[in-house]
Design goal:
Blueprint: E1 2-6, E2 15-18, E3 32-37, E4 40-50, E5 64-65, H1 74-86, H2 91-98, E6 106-113, H3 126-138, E7 140-142, H4 143-150, H5 156-164, E8 168-175, E9 181-188, H6 195-204, H7 206-210, H8 212-228, E10 231-232, H9 233-240, H10 244-252, E11 256-263, H11 281-294, E12 299-304, H12 310-323, E13 327-331, H13 335-349, E14 353-356, H14 362-373, E15 379-382, E16 394-400, H15 418-428, E17 432-437, H16 442-449, E18 454-458, E19 469-474, H17 490-501, E20 505-509, E21 518-521, E22 538-540, E23 545-547, E24 554-556, E25 569-572, H18 576-586, E26 592-595, H19 605-614, E27 620-623, E28 636-641, H20 644-648, H21 655-667, E29 678-683, H22 689-695, H23 699-712, E30 719-728, H24 731-749, E31 753-757, E32 763-764, E33 767-777, H25 780-799, E34 807-812
Parallel strand pairs: 12-17, 12-18, 13-15, 13-16, 14-15, 16-17, 19-29, 20-27, 20-28, 26-27, 28-29
Antiparallel strand pairs: 1-2, 1-4, 3-4, 3-5, 6-7, 6-8, 9-10, 9-11, 21-25, 22-23, 23-24, 30-33, 30-34, 31-33, 32-33
Helix pairs in contact: 1-2, 1-15, 3-5, 8-9, 8-10, 11-12, 13-19, 21-22, 24-25
Length: 815
């Protein structure tokens, strides 16, 4: 018997191992096994068992079986294979992204003492002697212990010399890193469960009555037991104010018993379904239309304007599928969104709901994974990585804010799109997919209007409130003495003041974080740049440092121009930090908060800030894209978009789509309850066509204009895009590699090739970049051939010694 096994490495194909007779009865597809490759041990997943011996080599035997039953199902293995094939990566890379860390066992290096060497260490130097002496006593040492002995992180050379001198040898052990969380519970001795015995204990036990503190502790225990049902040691000591010694006194008298139990790291509510609302007539029509669409289509797009109550339609759909015994996956693009929706879903579905995203610890993710695999959790709310969870009986996938670019993984591989992958994953279960957005992606709306997907529209705001009015403020007419971009125009300042006077809240949107995106020398125009990337540095006032937003390098603030020695710098443009500072100056009594990647770190930071805003303890919220997406606040009546020009001027074919989506989404945060919302857009290019579509809140008009341009220039949805990026530390090498690759591909794809060319930012992390774009027709044979040729070109390129270190990355459906 043989097994095709996936190991978490970027290998061109999966390797085969043989199954020894002793494991044949226990081995199953989807289980992890311990295997050895080039003297290293890996925990791999069995993809396929078969009887065909490889012709070219004798496969090694697997070393051990790590799971008694499969940790993943056949649908996940099919999903991995599809992602690897479609997005041009290896199944090992998909496995590395899909499994929680605890399933990818770590290889812990252990040194074993060689007894044949004896105890004469006179030939060893000082460091070698210290390690050898410890090995003689302990017989085995972990690598971390060796580093402690030497009080140095440079233990490797010493270990290498000891192995060469045969003082010790290496043994690799795979280490299971998950440990269940344990909680100490206090229970009453079962003999006192009888009321008479308990009464005698409390009223007649003289020893207990003399120990007043112990009696108080026991009474606290009985009270907690009655109210909570079970009592932890921590809660008992806190409630009673007693000490460990007093509790020990009761356990020594055999009145209370101590018990250690495994507990969940995440608290779950009782499982119940409690829907306390009725759909409006418009929502009910949408709900019924979705059901009708699902009768003959797998995918349905719900196009509902902002604040139309799409979430309530989702909740009713979830209820329907739970009652059928099915599981539901609810995908969201941002962790920032989850906190509000979690509270809404938990209110209606209690403990049926599980949450899965990157802010959870590996232990927490492992526990959620296990609960989903066994079908204990029926609804999972998560970001794109939750697509890899091992659902047992999936009925519905909801992709909320389906247009969002956060659904596309950028680095590292697999560079998958969660929305498109969700549609394939659902097909494996014959499950349905509900896409939802107020501003659908052009591709999804095109698929819906060409009858590939169902289309349901919800064009009425919940409670029949009006969409916000939108005003354009021409910033060209307002001159700043420093020729800087104006941050808050007088009209916006006046509107903020009016909102604050009415006890209303304000959201201000700026798509740049930090204090100032770049500094300029007043004399010669020199701009501080990152040493590793071809970009200017952003000044962050909070840290008083210059930050590179591409590679993350932080530099000291610059006070002297490197070119002319002048001390005077101008701050050009503005980020969220600077807006926050100016607001505090202009509105000193207002409570200002900032929501961006710098200000909301940690698992609960988003939730805490959103709660403060919900409770109206924050008057003005300044933020980046985090404030745009799907958040629901009743008391906001003013939204300001501070620099619309930055949204309208990207060098990207999706620039108009992204700008419309961002502006329409952020404007949708205003007037959600009373319909008295107002949106002010500060912009210099007032004639840009996207602005008129946003002012009219007319997605269809925008789509009809955009689709003409896409067809004319052969961009998606009329074509499929593959972006090939070449990276190398030498500019001439990367340019040469890109041109050689392009010349080879011209034979088959000349009319579909664009480039090679330098991207706008042509150096990141000391690597020069070149890009080659393939715009392919929607023909599966041509696309399959292109992917095959790209993989062949990578192999040919790396066979040439000159280009061996060139990194070639293919991004399918690049966004």
């Amino acid at each position: 018997m043989y097994a095709e096994i996936i190991i978490p490495l970027a290998l061109p194909k999966n390797y085969t191992w043989s199954i020894p007779d002793r494991f044949r009865a226990a081995v199953q597809e989807g289980c992890r096994v311990e295997v050895s490759l080039k003297n290293k041990k890996y925990a791999g997943v069995i993809k396929r068992l078969h009887q065909t011996k490889p012709e070219a080599f004798d496969p090694k035997e697997i070393l051990n079986i790590l799971d008694a039953e499969p940790i993943i199902y056949s649908e996940q293995l099919q999903m991995w294979q599809w992602i690897a094939s479609y997005y041009l990566c290896s199944e090992g890379e998909v496995m590395a992204a899909a499994l929680p860390a605890h399933f990818k066992l770590s290889s812990e290096t252990i040194l074993l003492f060689n007894e044949d060497y004896g105890d004469d260490f006179s030939a060893l130097d000082h460091d070698e002697y210290l390690v050898a002496e410890a090995l003689l006593i302990k017989k085995e040492l972990k690598l971390s212990a060796v580093q402690q002995i030497l009080d140095s992180s440079h233990g490797y050379p010493v270990i290498k010399r000891l192995i060469e001198k045969k003082v010790c040898f290496v043994w690799e052990a795979l280490k299971e890193s998950y440990k269940p969380k344990k909680e100490i519970y206090v229970i009453l001795n079962p003999q006192y469960n009888n009321e008479e015995n308990l009464s005698n204990l409390l009223n007649e036990d003289k020893k207990l009555q003399r120990a007043g503190k112990q009696m108080e502790l026991l009474l606290s225990y009985l009270h907690l037991m009655k109210t909570e049902g079970q009592v932890t040691k921590a809660s008992l000591l806190k409630k009673s104010g007693a000490s460990d010694a007093q509790l020990r006194g009761l356990t020594e008298k055999n009145i209370l018993l101590i018990e250690k139990r495994n507990v969940d790291r995440l608290l779950y509510l009782p499982k119940n379904i409690e829907i306390d609302f009725e759909l409006t007539a418009a929502q009910q029509r949408a709900f019924d239309s979705i059901d009708l669409s699902f009768q003959d289509k797998q995918v349905c797009l719900l196009h509902g304007i902002t604040s139309s109550g799409k979430t309530q339609v989702y909740i009713k759909q979830i209820e329907k599928f739970i009652k059928q015994g099915k599981q539901v996956l609810y995908l969201l693009p941002e962790i920032a969104l989850t906190s509000q929706i979690i509270r809404r879903l938990q209110k209606h579905f209690g403990g049926y709901i599980g949450i899965y995203h990157s802010k959870f610890s590996q232990n927490e993710r492992f526990e959620i994974w296990s609960k989903i695999r066994t079908g204990e959790l029926k609804v999972v709310l998560g970001a794109r990585s939750s697509l890899f969870l091992p659902f047992e009986d999936l009925g519905l996938i909801i992709v909320d804010e389906e247009h969002d670019s956060s659904y596309k993984q950028q680095e590292p591989a697999p560079r998958y799109h969660a929305r498109d992958s969700a549609i394939y994953y659902a097909s494996l279960f014959q499950a349905k997919v509900l896409l939802g957005s107020a501003t659908p992606s052009v591709e999804s709306y095109f698929n819906a209007t060409t009858n590939k997907y169902g289309l349901v529209e919800l064009m009425e705001r919940y409670g029949a409130v009006n969409l916000p009015s939108i005003e354009i403020i021409d910033t060209k007419k307002i001159v700043d003495k420093e020729r800087n971009k104006i941050i808050l125009t007088p009209a916006l300042q006046e509107s903020i003041q009016q909102s604050l006077e009415r006890n209303k809240q304000v959201i201000l949107f700026q798509n740049r974080r930090g204090y100032s995106p770049y500094q300029v020398c007043r004399v010669c125009g020199w701009i501080p740049q990152c040493k590793n990337c071809d970009v200017s540095l952003s000044y962050h006032k909070l840290t008083n440092k210059l930050h590179c937003h591409y590679c993350g390098t932080v530099y000291p603030a610059v006070s002297i121009c490197a070119a002319c020695g002048n001390h005077q710098f101008m701050q050009r443009n503005f980020g969220t930090e600077r807006i926050e500072e100016q607001l505090e100056e202009i509105f000193p009594k207002a409570k200002i908060a900032r929501m961006d990647i710098d200000s909301v770190r940690g698992k609960s930071a988003h939730d805490n800030l959103i709660r403060l805003f919900e409770q109206q303890r924050v008057d003005v919220l300044v933020g980046t894209q985090m404030v745009v997406k799907g958040l629901d606040f009743d008391n906001v009546n003013l939204v300001g978009i501070l620099d619309a020009d930055s949204l309208l001027s990207f060098a990207d074919f999706r620039v108009n789509e992204r700008a419309f989506q961002l502006m329409e989404q952020v404007s949708g945060r205003a007037g959600r309850k009373d319909g008295e919302g107002k949106v002010l857009i500060q912009v210099a290019n007032t004639k840009h066509p996207v602005l008129s579509f946003v002012q009219a809140h007319d997605y269809k008009l925008f789509f009809n204009q955009e689709i003409i341009a896409r067809k004319k220039f052969f961009y998606p949805p009329y074509s499929r895009i593959i972006l090939i990026t070449f990276k190398h530390k030498l500019k001439e090498v990367v340019e040469s590699a890109a041109h050689i690759c392009a010349n080879h591909m011209k034979k088959d794809f000349e009319k579909y090739l664009v480039g090679p060319a330098e991207p706008v930012v042509n150096r990141i992390r000391n690597q020069y970049l070149m890009e080659l774009l393939l715009k392919l027709p929607r023909d599966t044979n041509i696309i399959a051939l292109a992917k095959q040729v790209i993989q062949q070109q990578a192999v040919i390129l790396h066979h040439d010694k000159k280009f061996r270190s060139v990194v070639m990355v293919a991004d399918v459906d690049a966004v």
